[in-house]
Amino acid sequence: MLEGDLALATEARQEPGCTIHVCTVCRRQREDLPEGYDQPGIGLATALSERMAGSGIAVIPVECLAVCKRPCTIALAADGKWTYLIGDLDAGLHLDEIVGAAESFAASANGIVPWKERPVSFRKGVVARVPPLPRLQGSDQ
């Protein structure tokens, strides 16, 4: 993680709500571009940052979520909650769904949003659900 990303992640953990980590290096094949690909996470991170400003939900661009075959990928995370890794997202098609899902995730007690309340892109795009880390005995955090 870059020094700037570490500072953002530390700041985000101090905020209520949750953090949306957005992979910015995944490449999506695009024959219409000279390079033959684009990096949709860059635009998604920008769009989400603008939409979520002041919401208590942090957006942190990250260099890799290791889901390269399913760009564009995000992770929803918060202290004491399950973390969700969601792939195959598109900023143009799914921005409102991502915002709504992040708000539902942030409002949940444990990070688990009922299946029927999840947007279709999240139902189809789930890569993983990771349990929260156990609290350490004697820890005040």
Helix and strand topology:
Blueprint lengths: L2 H11 L4 E6 L4 E2 L7 E2 L1 H13 L4 E6 L11 E4 L5 E4 L4 H17 L12 H6 E5 L11
Parallel strand pairs: 1-4
Antiparallel strand pairs: 1-5, 2-3, 5-6, 6-7
Helix pairs in contact: 2-3
Short description:
The chain contains 4 helices and 7 strands; from the N terminus they run H-E-E-E-H-E-E-E-H-H-E. Strand 5 and strand 6 form a beta hairpin.
Structural write-up:
By secondary structure, the protein is an alpha+beta fold. The protein is 33% helix and 21% strand. The chain contains 4 helices and 7 strands, in the order αβββαβββααβ. It has helices spanning 3-13, 40-52, 91-107, 120-125, and strands at residues 18-23, 28-29, 37-38, 57-62, 74-77, 83-86, 126-130. α2 crosses α3 (91-107). The longest helix is centred in the C-terminal third of the chain and has 17 residues, at 91-107.
Oligomer: single chain
Contiguous helical run count: 4
Question: What is the C-alpha radius of gyration, as a whole number of Å?
Answer: 15 Å
Instruction: State the end-to-end distance.
Output: 22 Å
| Structural shape | globular
Largest sheet: 5 strands, mixed
Spans of 5+ residues with little confidence (pLDDT < 50)?
none
Total strands: 7
Q: What is the SS-derived class?
A: alpha+beta
User: What proportion of the residues form beta strands (DSSP E)?
Assistant: 15-25%
Helical percentage: 25-40%
**Helix-strand string:** HEEEHEEEHHE
Record the strand order, biggest sheet. Answer: 4-1-5-6-7
The overall pLDDT average reads: 86
